[in-house]
Amino acid sequence: MLTRTFTAKTTGAVLSFLITLFIIFFVFNRHILEANEVSFAAGGDGLKSTFCTLFHIQYDTSYWYTRSMNHPYGESIFFTDSQPFQTNLIKAFKGTGIDFSGYAVGILNIWLLFSFVLCSLFLYLIIIELRLPPWLALVGSIIITFLTPQWDCLSGHYSMGYAYIFPFGIWLLIKFYQRPSYLVSVIFGLFIFIVCGKHFYFIALIGIVWLIFWIFLFIKGKSLYAKLIPLIPHLFIQLIIPFIIFSIFSGMYDPNTDRTEYPWGFPYTSTRLESVFLPLGKSYGNWIHIRGDWRTVGYVGLVSTLTSILTVIIFIRRWIRDGLSRAFRLTDNLILNVLFLAGFISLLISLGFPFVLGMVKLMNYMGPLRQLRTIGRFVFPFFYIINVYSLYILWKWYGSSSRKWIATTILSIALIWMSYDAFLNVKPKPKDHYNKYPALNDRENILPENSWVKNHDWSEYQAIMPFPYFHIGSENYWKNDNSPVIEHAYIASLKTGLPLNAVMLSRTSIHQTLNNLDLYYEPCSEYPVLKDLQTSRPYLFMRCKNCNLTDNEWRLIHKSTLIDSSNSLYFYRFYPDSLEALLKEYHTELFLKAQKNYQDTSNPWYFYKSHTMDTGEKLSFNMTRENEILTCSFPDSGKYVVSLWFEGAARDLWPVTYLFINIEDSTGHRYFRQRTDFFREMIMRDGDQGLVEFPVYIKNRNDRFILTLYNRYVIRGTMKLENILIRREGEDVVIQDGEKLYLNNRRIFEKL
């Protein structure tokens, strides 16, 4: 009998593996057969991940630091979403002479798809450990695998798409619960270390289940295992020691100490109840007109939704009738009850609790956990647990039912509907995630768009600066995240081996960010990045044709030399020492304009307020509450320009302070309200001060302009403003403020 049971379980495991493998090959056959030429993502983070991975393998000299972006500083590999352990394995083989780096994209694509095969296998093992029949474990594991929201990670965040991680972690916890052993603990510890390298989120997503599991062991340990003390070493081996080792290891290759402590998104990328329990975007849910970011969607399926509702009803009923302790015993399986509680807590976190209750500033006390900005991903553990739990509930109900034909019908309908949900989930994926980039796959550079590559010796250059310039990643400044040159920049960098000084990363050093953004902003007093360049070799500028550039981007282009072009790009040579000449010319231009305007007697209208002027008003504001900076009435309708200097451009979170722009007519009716940010409107930097400038459109004479500021992130902070100026567009205004002279709020360093 035991042999027969073992054989059935083993056969089921093999079938789960093979059937899932077959379905994935059937559904994604083009992706597998053309794996080295296909990108799952149509751009964005997925293309960035591919770029950083390929650049790291081909050109980086360090295994744990990359020069692909953020030149001249580079970045730790752990902040690039480059799957460092897999990538470095390929890189290591290349270093020994076994070079299959040309197949890196295909290897990583296939491994990502294969993770869903392993997901099915470990789900099968979980269900078997819960003593459900092998046939149900087989069917259920396959269904849950194709229903998982981790398929959506193929849209960009590849590292989060490895679907076997949650089932494997849960299976190890169950095995440890059944029989604590150092072998299981060591395997779990190695597993935690490896998944930290895949994506730091995993330690939190698995850690919440692990934490609830260990709280349960400390409460019930004596009754389960007679002694509690022998379990304590396992606590450290499983998660604490691997986490410490990984933190030390990754920190050894991270010299930056000024990364943001408050990455954007926390808690605004929480999931929603409707995106977890309602069939948004499904054929039978088209009547529900609710949409959201794919990162906040984690539909558990209709069967698990109904099971969840039933569970809540039973829980409340038992709580009222038998007390809270009895209510928590949802099933006759103790470990499943613990896992359900862990999944439920994960769901609450994914929904944004307690932050959505108006407690956003609690994040100030969360330390490193603030880095987990997309908390909607906490729905992943809940997804797997609730679906396994639903299968268990269905089977137990089936076994206890006296009317087998009714129970059989309901169980069959439930499995069929779960299969239908899984089908709907995976159906659009092959089309959505089949993308090709011919210019990138053109390794011989024979396509017209790559003809420029062979025309020059790119070793004569030090880096690429693309236009329109983009810089996303510091969490304090976002510039042109939709720049049309991004894809071209990645390809040009891979073709030439030149790093980008642009950035599409995460948590980039704030001072490095500003040093590179100074090239994009209007010139001020110096270019700190020049001191950090290791060579005087020129930059390669690449400009997207027919794209709008800022005035300062054109200044840089005009200081460069056109060397080549393609169908959609121009290429220029630019020597960094030209920046000094550009800076001097800019200030000479300001001086001449100011001199001309200083002698003009036309007396243009303007509004000006400064702390050095005797206005009787302070220019320091508490950022933790909404503050009215100024009010002003206009002499006529038209377009005006508002500018001001603020202190805190280099401080974490200060540039993301909100600016609320309100305009009212003479009756008090507000006809315009806009929210923007300091970083969005900043055009110049001088040390820790930034110049903000933006237009406003006035409909009528005497309309009232109201400007307020508010920072919803900081606990405390007083922002100092200087030189608030409002002027008509097209009219220059020269202001003498103490010993300083300004033209349109730009400091003039020459004397008139």
Could you walk me through the main structural features you see in this protein, from its secondary elements to its overall organization?
- The structure is a single chain.
- The protein is built from 23 helices and 22 strands.
- Among the domains are: 260-400, no CATH class; 606-731, Sandwich (Jelly Rolls), CATH 2.60.120.
- 41% of the residues are buried.
Give a brief description.
The longest helix is centred in the N-terminal third of the chain and has 26 residues, at 2-27. The chain has 23 helices and 22 strands. Helix 1 (2-27) runs parallel beside helix 6.
Write the layout of secondary structure elements.
Elements: H1 2-27, H2 29-33, H3 44-58, E1 65-66, E2 75-76, H4 84-95, H5 104-129, H6 134-147, H7 165-178, H8 182-198, H9 201-225, H10 232-252, H11 273-277, H12 302-322, H13 324-327, H14 334-350, H15 379-400, H16 404-426, H17 429-432, H18 438-441, E3 463-467, E4 471-472, E5 478-479, H19 486-496, E6 503-504, H20 510-520, E7 539-544, H21 551-558, E8 561-565, E9 569-574, H22 578-598, E10 606-609, E11 620-622, E12 627-633, E13 638-647, E14 658-664, E15 670-677, H23 678-681, E16 682-686, E17 689-698, E18 704-710, E19 718-728, E20 734-737, E21 740-743, E22 746-747
Parallel strand pairs: 3-7, 4-6
Antiparallel strand pairs: 1-2, 4-5, 7-9, 8-9, 10-19, 11-19, 12-18, 13-17, 13-19, 14-15, 14-18, 16-17, 20-21, 21-22
Helix pairs in contact: 1-5, 1-6, 3-4, 3-19, 5-6, 5-7, 6-16, 7-8, 7-9, 8-10, 9-14, 12-15, 14-15, 15-16
